[in-house]
Here is the input.
Amino acid sequence: MNIIGFIILGLAAGSISGVIGIGGGTMITPLLVLLFGFTQKTAQGTTLALLVPPIGILAAMTYYKAGFVNITAGAFIAAGFMIGGYFGSKIAINIPEDLLRKVFAVYLMAIALKLFITK
Here is the structure.
């Protein structure tokens, strides 16, 4: 288990989420697949599990019952996500609106391109 990697992912996702308002499906899920070798279903289930209260409890339970949730990864990423989200939001409130929108757009395009070209 790569606990340090999961915490770093949580911190990064939380920080980016705090800055541009995204993180779960657009950052954590693809990075669990690309960096940690999770299957797509396990990545999705784990992401839902870390976002459970109150967002995805029913969906996370469905993935968990089917064996597609890594509880350890979800817990450590969630801890990092909370801390990163706090500091990311502190950064975001000081970034001009236009620049923030552009950063958000570039991030989404980069993730989409990576997912499109990766097997």
Q: What stands out?
A: Residues 46 and 69 are 5 Å apart (CA to CA). Residues 3-117 form one domain.
